[in-house]
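Pipeline run #58 for the internal structure catalog. This entry was flagged by the ingest filter as a single-chain record with no existing model, so it goes straight to prediction. Upstream metadata was stripped on purpose; only the residue string is passed forward. Reviewer on rotation: M.T. Logging verbosity set to normal.
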Amino acid sequence: MAAFSLDPEQSTWCAELRALAAEQLRPVAEKGEPGRVNRPLVAALGAHGLIARLFDSGALDLCLMRESLARECTEAETALALQGLGAHPIAAFGTDAQRARRLPEVVAGRAVAAFALSEPGAGSDAAALALEAVPDPEAGGWRLYGEKRWISNAPEADVVTVFARTGDEPRGARGVTAFLVPGDRPGLGGEALDMLAPHALGSLVFDGVRVGPEDVLGEPGQGFRVAMHTLNLFRPSVGAFAVGMAQAALDATLAHTAARRAFGGVLADLQSVAHQVAEMATRTEAARLLVYAAAEAYDNGDPDVPRRAAMAKLLATETAQYVVDAAVQLHGARALQRGHLLEHLYREVRAPRIYEGATEVQRTIIAKELYRAASAEESPAARVPGSVPGFVPVSVPTGGGTS
């Protein structure tokens, strides 16, 4: 079997993306305020056609974009990803009217999108969401009451995909509906959150926000299908974001250890340092390949996408944490100075292990999928997880995390 590699066109495109990020996007990003939406940066992403590419290409292209941008400008990577996360439900489940009204503005970078799943009491356990959609017979729709927290681009987003409970069940996937809510709709408020990583995250407060049948994304009561479809696409690309950061840290470490003089030579001459760098490179490459495999599985419509996506996000985000931490250690105190690349990456790299499904959630999903497959292989009739010897059925969290 031939070793996996990108074709020449893909490799060239990735190099072009890295150059674009370093030369044109980074200067715009540096003018932004940490933790707030950088609208000029979003507009630049739209002008260069990157947002449009989110919706007319596959999961592998998404991963290549996120990895390439992350190596040179994490702010541009995150701005692109948050646009995709917020608007993908519109592209995949919106009506013709919803798509025609909202997507052109999002793609052009003139409108900012958000994905509102997580709540103060429903992060990793997204099935516990409590935002209530109360029927409004007089207006012919619902009124939303409650709060969302750790939401991408909140509260500045122009359009928000909101998940609310329309059924009678107090928790679980049933009875949740996805709504498309304009950011300026009466009753919708919120505030920005000051996070460790400089991401635009905030809270949204719903005080009787009206939504009607024309605002429903997909079918009423089928909102979790919208959420899971979106997360299955974006989870491998979170891994790609992590791989990009790991590669940036590795590149910096190679340059530093090859030039930094110590103990009569350079750091790279020390076996302990060389072995550490080899470990960093090996883990980064392994994570990259698993991310690409998960993305190709999604693009090919393979049935094991949830397992592959969870594995890719798990390994890549944990690997990035390890590589960035090791890079800081090898650089010494200079890496702890504000403004150093590794100081920036050290703050950035922690968040992906939590959002869009924490590490623990990914392990639970992987285990569930493995036992389900084992049960199906054992007997066509044995499709209940509890039929596998030693298996204890669990309620698998969906892993909203930061949305």
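catalog note: The longest strand covers residues 141-152.
catalog note: The chain has a mean pLDDT of 89.
status: ready for reviewer M.T.
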